[in-house]
Amino acid sequence: MTAQAITGRKMSANNFFATSSTFLYRRRAFFVGLLLLPPLLWFGIVYAGSLFVLLLQSFYSLDDFSGQVVQELSLSTYGQLFSSPANLDIILRTLAMATAVTFAAIAIGFPIAYYMARYARGKTRAYLYVGIMLPLWSSYLVRVYAWRLMLAKEGIISWLFAKLHLSWFLDALLALPVIGGPALSTSYFGMFLVFTYVWLPYMILPIQAALERVPENLLQASSDLGAAPRQTFFNVILPLSMPGIAAGSIFTFSLTLGDYIIPGVVGAPGYFIGQMVYVQQGTAGNIPLAAAFSVVPIILISIYLVVAKRLGAFDAL
Length: 317
Hints:
two-stranded antiparallel sheet, 75% helix, mainly alpha, MetI-like fold, 2 domains
């Protein structure tokens, strides 16, 4: 190929790119749409499409005689879901655990986030960030099984209570109805501890980010107007931190609702929603009931978001 031909091809390519750039520059809406097309297709097909299929499956039913899915729209699967006392018990058990974990994460995470945002500086803040993020760098399963070993009857927690001569307190805790059990590793209280530990970082970080956005001049103005520190906290800091609390609670609440590994490894016998979805679509082969169980967390989270919005939790976003 001659040098003249190569030069001609380069000029043609340059002209093409120049024309294309001019065309896209003059039609910015088309250019933005072109950039958004790949992620929108991914979101629409992979996420929204799979969610639509899931919702559609929940309106099918399972033929008891043949064991085949009947692809006719009906509410029979939802009737089976909400008419069975066992299924309602699973939903209420999961909802109670998710609520308890969320409130515990707020109670523990808010003081830590407040200290990080208002007082921690330099290396102290860096160490706190590393301490919060460090558990997330290890395997989820490793953390859960490590907690199972610590909560076991011969584990380090029982050993520590014995060394402190507090075994009576641990025995009294395990003797409590509902939350107790033979050991912490086989009790709902032990499951609650593991859930709170695993999801706590997802509560601390959003609250800390929200508290950092609270303007300092508002706190100074509150003090200048004669407000006590307690009044400043409840009337200024807490309302402005509500978006962070709402965001963190969405994480902890929804992740607890859908988790099936922790209830299977730690805690008393008794299914949770995540386990029922796994069992119904796997061992039992009841895809419609598994889909109906999957819809329950979606409904609960939607209700929570509506209530949080009405309470003004997202006004400062």
